[in-house]
Write a structure and sequence with these properties.
Blueprint: H1 7-15, H2 20-27, H3 31-44, H4 48-51, H5 56-63, H6 79-86, H7 93-106, H8 114-128, E1 141-146, E2 151-154, E3 161-171, E4 176-182, H9 187-201, E5 207-209, E6 217-219, E7 227-228, H10 230-238, E8 242-243, H11 255-270, H12 280-296, H13 306-314, E9 330-336, E10 342-345, E11 348-351, E12 360-365, E13 369-374, E14 377-383, E15 393-394, H14 411-421, H15 423-434, H16 443-450, H17 452-455, H18 458-469, H19 478-487, H20 489-492, H21 509-512
Parallel strand pairs: 1-5, 5-8, 11-15
Antiparallel strand pairs: 1-3, 2-3, 3-4, 6-7, 9-12, 10-11, 12-13, 13-14
Helix pairs in contact: 14-15, 14-16, 15-16, 15-18, 18-19
Length: 517
Amino acid sequence: MVRKIKAKQILQLRNQGLSRRAIESAQGMSRHSIRAVLDAAERLGLGWDDVAELSEAEVYAALFPGRGVHESVFAQPDWGRVHTELARVGVTLKLLHQEYVDASSLAGQAVMSYDRFCRLYAEHAAVSGATSRVGHKAGRSIEVDWSGPTMQLLDPTTGEISKVYLFVACLPFSRYAFVEATLDMKQESWLRAHTAMFAFFGGSVPRLVPDNLKTGVISHPKEGEVVLNDSYRQMAAHYSAAVLPGRVRHPRDKSSTENTVSHVATWVIAGLRHETFTSLAQLRLRIREQMDAYNREPFQKRVGSRLSVFTVEEKPLLQALPAAPFEISTWSYKRKVNANAHVVWARNFYSVPFSHIGALVDLRITETMLEVYRRDERLASHLLLPATTSNQYRTNEADLPEGRSFQAWDRTRIEEWAARIGPATVTVTAKIFETVFIDEAGFDAALAVLRLSRKFPPARLEAACALALRGPIRSPRYAHLRPILDTGQDKTGQVPEPAPDDGGYVRGGAYYAGGHR
């Protein structure tokens, strides 16, 4: 076929001094094809210098104008105008095809079908570079974003109006969509919306394609790696997905969800504009109903609907969900491991392997668990102590080395410490335990008394306990013993003055006179 002649190559070899026979032998070309190219170039006055910068197709078209062009029997639309009109609000290819049919029919010309019209427009766009088409495979990605338009909730008691934000997710292949209403756009709401999304789809995918919002992506540089929010990365890993955010200022990277966001404005926000909602649960129910209708709406250019394509073609390809949904967590960074091999969180103590004493660790806290990490290694995990507790310990025995200083406190150990100080101290700690309903409730008060032996000599603490026991107070505590030691009353052996009727402890005159008046 003439179309296969490499006209530019023939002219180049001829310019290099090769004869027709040499070109035929070297390239395996027909002598008739070579003669046709050289004769056409001579007739048009074209030499190698004239075509050196042109492509092979351009050289062929210059030598043989009009050859190989397929003439269609159908009237040809103005594809540039079609592309321009599609940018206008509400204009679709179906509408433009109908206008083309009407105009061509009036002119008595044959018209092409809607399918051919769409295919030729796509070829025009691809050749001209007017737009790019991104192919999507079933069950491979989910595009997520926040909707710009918002909704409202009414407080029936106060009449206060609060804003409601819409999380939007879409499977690009089937265009099956999910919408969740939230009270804010903070990280916890972002993660909870994803958890609800995976449950709604009934499966997971290898790729999550979000926008570059801070609840998901910390930074997305032009060069280098994307830095993800830790909690978002953990959530994606829980569902065996990788986060691949769209490029900054490239909305086509997630065109499906961008398109779905605009549809949400019509199907959800506009569709429910005449209804008043007083609870988030009520609003979420109506949104689910609206989105169900949206997903069932038949395609204009494809057979079926979003729901039917998702159910038949895409859902079977989704990854199975994990046994338990992702648990929302918060992170606390650079917490130091104390000398007792515990780290502090919310006024309570959690053990860490003793080899990490003095190190800085990160804590991941969920509703029920506390996990300790050093870089990417998990060092320990504990059930979270109730928020109402303080100075309580969660200790894994394996985290601590052998040795008494690392043993957890109990009543026996406290009583042994008191016995080493003296009998009066033993009596004081015993009276403390008599006032509590469980031993653990007395640990803090008893240890506060015993730790006075670190600031004052144990003999002085023993004398102070004996002096306090001779007074009117039935169960002396730290608050009673510390003033005795501070003022030296344990040295003089003077019993503190009786407390007034209101039950408070009042320092006697000896305190203000330094014990000499």
